[in-house]
Amino acid sequence: MARVIRFHRHGGPEVLRIEAVDVAPPATDEVQIRVRALGLNRAEALLRTGTYIEAAKFPSGLGLEAAGIVEAVGEDVTGFAPGDKVSIVPPLSMVRWPAYAELANFPAEIVVKHPSALGFEAAAAVWMQYLTAYGALVDIAGLGQGDVVVITAASSSVGLAAIQIANRVGAVPIALTRTSAKRHALLDAGAAHVIASGEEDSRAQLEAIAGAIGVRVVFDAVGGPAFEPLTAAMSPGGILIEYGGLSPEPTPFPLFNVLGKSLTLRGYLVHEIIRDAARLAKAKAYILDGLSNGTLKPVIARTFRFEEIVEAHRFLESNMQFGKIVVTI
C-alpha cells in the first residue's frame, strides 16, 4: 500500500484527499519511483476544478512533476536501476500517470537522471517550467543575442525560467507583473527591466525601453486587454506566443497591429515538445547543460509537506508565490 492524493469530485483544494491504495508493479517500458518531492502546477488546480484540457476520471489522481528514487523497472527498460535518483518530464496525461503519490509508475521515456548536485526539491521544480520556456523561446521563437523579449506573469516558475533562458542566450528580458511589489525580486532574478502593468502605462514603458528595436518576442500567459499594448510595442515580424489564459476578461484581436507589422500570434502548449522525441531530446540536453553550469537554477517559493497538500493548493491559487511550490514526502 502507498499513500496517494486523489479527489472524488470537482471543487476547491478541500476536495483533495490522502488515501492508501495498492500500486501495481511497473508495466513494460515503465519505471516505478519512490517519490521524494512534487512540483505543483496551475494545471493541477484546473484539473481539480474541472477546467483543464483533460477530464478527470473519479476517483482521480493528479500531478505532473516528481523527483525521487527508482524503486523498480519494468520489462524492456534499460538505463535505469533501483536506487537511481531521477525526476520526470510532465506526462501527456496526469490522469493516466498522476505524480501526487508516495509510489508511482511512469513511462521510462519521460524519466530523467538529473545532475547529482540537484536535490529532490529542486529536481521536482525543473521540467515543466524549463520545457515550457525553452519550447517557446528557443525552439519556436529562436530567441537570440540582443532580442527584446517581454515575459508576462514573470514571477511564476515559468516566467522566472524564461528570464533565465533569455539571459542565457543574450536576450533582453522585460518582466511584466501586476504590481510593483515584486519589482526588486524580479530584478534580482535577472530581469533587465520590470513593468508593473497595473500601475504603469505598459505600452509607453515598453516603447521607451525597446526604442527603435522594438519587442521581437512576447511570451504571454495572461491574454485579455494586454494584447493591444503588447502588440503595439512589437517590432515588425515579431511573434507573440500565448501559453495561458489567466485574464478573466475577453482577449481582443489587435487587427491593425498584426496587419501593419506582419506579426505572428501563436498558441502554444508544452505538449508539442514533449510528444516530439527529437525536440524533447534537444530540450532536455539544453536544460541539463544549464542546470550543470548554473545558468538555469530553479527558484522555490515555498515548500509544504505531503500532508499539507490542501494548504499547498490554497497557496497555489493565492498568486502570492515567487517561483515554484514544492511538496515533500
UniProtKB/TrEMBL annotation:
Q: Does the keyword Protease apply?
A: no
| SUPFAM superfamilies, A to Z | GroES-like (SSF50129), NAD(P)-binding Rossmann-fold domains (SSF51735)
The record's annotation in Gene3D superfamilies points to:
Medium-chain alcohol dehydrogenases, catalytic domain, NAD(P)-binding Rossmann-like Domain
Domain Enoyl reductase (ER) positions: 11-327
Q: Does the keyword Lipid metabolism apply?
A: no
The lineage's top-level taxon is Bacteria
InterPro entries noted in UniProt? ADH-like_C (IPR013149), ADH-like_N (IPR013154), ER (IPR020843), GroES-like_sf (IPR011032), NAD(P)-bd_dom_sf (IPR036291)
Q: Which GO terms describe its molecular function?
A: NADPH binding; oxidoreductase activity, acting on NAD(P)H
Pfam families in the record, alphabetically? Answer: ADH_N (PF08240), ADH_zinc_N (PF00107)
Read off the PANTHER family from this record: QUINONE OXIDOREDUCTASE PIG3-RELATED, ZINC-CONTAINING ALCOHOL DEHYDROGENASE
Name used for this protein in its record: Zinc-binding dehydrogenase
Taxonomic source organism:
Bradyrhizobium cajani
- What high-level taxonomic lineage is stated for the organism? Bacteria, Pseudomonadati, Pseudomonadota, Alphaproteobacteria, Hyphomicrobiales
